[in-house]
Amino acid sequence: MIEQLNPTLKAFTILVPGVLLGLMFDIFTPLFYLVFVILVTFLFSNISMKKWLLIFTPFVLLAIGFAWMRMLYTRESFAGGEVLFSIWQFDVTTGSVMIAISLGLRSLCFVALSLLFILTTDSTKFMLSLMQQLKISPKITYGVLAGYRFLPTFRHELQVLRQAHRIRGVGRARGIKGRIIQFKRYSIPLLANAIRKAERVAIAMESKGFTGEKERTYYHPMKVGKRDWVFFSTMVGMFFFIVILSYSFGYLNVFGNQF
Amino acid sequence: MQHKVKTGSPLLEVKGLSFSYEKKEAPVLNQLNFQINQDEFVLLMGASGSGKSTVSLCLNGLYPEAVEGFQSGDIYFEGKHIESLPKGEINKQIGIVFQDPESQFCMIKVEDELAFTLENRNVPTEEMAEKIDHVLNLVNMKAYKHVAIHELSGGQKQKIALASVLLLEPTLLILDEPTANLDPVSSLEFVKLIRNIREEHQLSVLLIEHQVDDWLEDISRVLLLDQRGSIILADTPNSVFQSNKSLIEELGLFIPRVYQKKKESLPIAVAQTSKENCLRLNQVAFKRWKKEIFKEVNLTLQKDEFVAIVGENGAGKSTLLQLMAGLLKPAAGEVSFLNTPLSKWKEQQLRKHLGFVFQNPEHQFITDTVYDEISFGMTLNEIDPQTMKKRTEDLMEHFHLTAHKWKNPFSLSGGQKRRLSVATMLDETPDLLLFDEPTFGQDAKTSEELMRIIQQIQANGTTIVFVTHDMELVDQYCKRVIVLNDFSIALDGRPEELWEQTELLKQARLRPPARLEATEKVGATP
Question: A146 CB contacts (<8 Å, ≥6 apart)?
Answer without folding.
Answer: A198, A201, A202, A205, B105, B106
